[in-house]
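B., you asked whether I could sanity-check this one before it goes into the benchmark set. Here's the sequence:
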Amino acid sequence: MDSVQYYLDHKELSVRGCTQNLGVGYSTLTKWLKNFRESGNIPIHGSGNYASDEQKEIAHLKRELRDA
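And here's what the prediction gave me:
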């Protein structure tokens, strides 16, 4: 699930709340939302700010566990 879709599916959260849950930067998500509103799609997908691939995987697994 991409970040914009997550935000659209969780309107009860603020943009900042979604960024914290997803592990992406606030400005990154707002940029993606702006692009989505203007064009209807998201041309750029970031990987977040992780120190290593291991940290990225840990964040991904934590999100999966939280959403389960």
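One thing to flag: DSSP finds four helices and no strands in the chain. Otherwise nothing jumped out at me.
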